[in-house]
What does this fold into?
Amino acid sequence: MKFQGVKIAGTGSYVPEKVLTNEDLSEIVDTSDEWIFTRTGIKERHIAADDQFTSDLSSEAAKEALENAGIKAEDLQLIIVATLSPDKTFPNTASLVQNKIGAPNAACFSMEAGCTGFVYGLEVGAGMIASGLYKNALIIGAEKLSSVVDWTDRTTCVLFGDGAGAAILTATDVENNKYLGSDLGSNGEQHDILHIPGGGCAVPFSQEAKDQKLLTLQMNGKEVFKHAVNGMSVSAKKALDQSGLSIDEIDWVVAHQANVRIINAVGQKVGVPTEKVYINVDRFGNTSAASVPIAFNEMRQKGLLKRGQKILFVAFGGGLTWGASVVEY
Ligand code: ACO
It folds into this structure.
């Protein structure tokens, strides 16, 4: 084994066609555009069709990332899908994506780290490449959250959306390594402030579990808010320390798009000017594991990313989990 450097060779994303606005939501639950926008910054979100699953959203994002990287699907050696809303509990969604995009030579697995899933996935993929065992990897964050939210609960259903984002990691010489620093963490004591209680072996699927609303997402919003601001700020600083860069040397912060107030509070705590913090939660809502790679790919599409820029990814989610990574684009 010969250690290798890692770089991001390409990105992609996909959101389903159907748009659900705050006005549309106010016809489903007792809410308003004013309430949602002032508390979250969200205006609209995309919702997948009934027959469109997380693996479908993932595959579309993957195809764009492969094209952007100039790599064929057959050349992929690894596919990781981070999701909390898999097509099936078993087998893993990455194998379904492998089949859909035609990548027979890839090892495949899914991982669940809530909204931090993509940042965890990047770390795992980067580590596997750095080991010298893999040359390229497809890392996807994808969700069909519309399938796990309770559409009668106005405190949660207004927050989430569907979509997928992807990045291709490839090997470089160690001297040209672009994966500069990272931090991952978790606090399992708080596992039940943001969770889906049923559907696993603790509370298996049953009509009773469904009637008791145990198969859909539950959240203590105020607690999550506090933990998210603190967790993301601390993690961002730790990843920066590890990279040896100061916050002034960072060109862009790409934070998990949960809520514009959380993102701004993190930006302030870390000391980043607002113009360096990318925000698209207004158009996509919280897409959990998909939010960071969707935002990053949108930045590329808009021509905001230049090779050589330093990027700070930071995310937070159920588990609780948090994480940050510093890369050179
Ligand atoms: N429309 C209208 N009124 C509402 C709605 C709604 N959609 N939801 C709740 N309310 C009402 C409540 O019933 C309450 O009414 P009451 O005072 O009569 O009891 C009032 O609005 C205030 O409710 P709060 O829960 O106190 O509202 P808060 O200001 O805390 O905002 C929010 C709620 C937006 C969820 C906030 O706590 C938050 O953003 N938390 C972070 C959660 C998050 O982003 N989770 C995503 C997953 S984790 C992650 O991705 C980081």
